Sequence to fold (427 residues):
Amino acid sequence: MYQTTYHRPSSVDEAASLFTKGSDAKYLAGGHTLIPVMKQRLASPSDVIDLGKIAELIGIEPTGDGIIIKAATTHSDVASSETVQKAIPVLAYLASLIGDPAVRHRGTIGGSLANNDPAADYPAAVLALGATVKTNKRSIAADDFFKGLFSTALDDGEIITAVSFPVQDKAGYAKFNHPASRFALTGVFVAKTPAGDVRVAATGASQNGVMRVPAIEAALKANWSAGAIDGVRISADGLMSDIHGTSDYRANLIKVMAQRAVIAAG
Amino acid sequence: MSTVKLTVNGKAVSAEVEDRTLLVHLLRDHLNLTGTHIGCDTSQCGACVVHIDGRAVKSCTVLAGQASGSTVTTIEGIAKGDELHPMQAAFRDNHGLQCGYCTPGMIMSAIDIVHRHSGNLDEATVRHELEGNICRCTGYHNIVKAVLDAAGRMKVAQAAE
Fold:
């Protein structure tokens, strides 16, 4: 790891101000992506600004029609939260599938979303549930937030402060995980809104990161059942092909995981 | 350079370290607590697991600065004098180790698992929960036996207190 300067601000405003002073600053949340990347010398930030202990960024609150998860809340706290388990149980389940117990004790929802790894779990939940990403400057709808591989709508220095999740009528997640890394080889999140709309998001599949799956959304809107997906054809164009699986394999996984997610959603 | 102040195994410690220093290097190189091992150095194998404020974490993926102000417990801090922690005793009695390289991390993860499940553990849960700790000797069989054995001993010890 190259030399860096570590900062631990006590507020979001102080963190944002430190960011503008650094020549090439980076925010650190749980550190389970940034630190490995720094160890490989693929990143060499001049300043590392730790958001992990900022009190206003930690916690889970119920709202009238959903929940707000603050950005530096760890995966283990989401997984074990009674508020989450009661309002959106599938979100607690999804958090329990990330990495391993020690990783879940450090990794955060805000870090995962800001990084937007193409095989991360949270982006699928945020996109399918139609969540809103709150930052220190604005609110960003899920459909506008994800901009491709490791890319988001966040401006330089902008900080995710919380994610607001609405409760949907039905929601389910199924992940075919890589047995070593536990990242999604493909994971699919399905949700049915109170208005009857269907939102389906796949992670780990596309070369451009998390994506909606309109063909499955249409099939499920007409008939909310696993069988409705049988006849859907998913194109392998634009899907990832690597040592773990071909694009055709992932195209099939999108269907199979969507079916399992619908069954789980009930 | 920064001054990092934390509590390690019940003692207040202070060290002047480079900001890029990892917690595992602070423990091993500055505090001479070499019981915590570095295996993969990529947050996969779990040989470096310690507790920060009571939670199992991989100390190869935490900056020393992030642990400043926290309470850290390592494998050196769990026995009571000459009396092994019930998890250590169970690993010895069940032959839960061969080369021993993964053992400090296994034991720190296992104590965390027992705490989180309030001692109500079955074999499948232990195997699933140990997925972040890799052992290349034992095939896990005796490690799982040791954790289940220790869960019972820790319950008894807690009830006695």
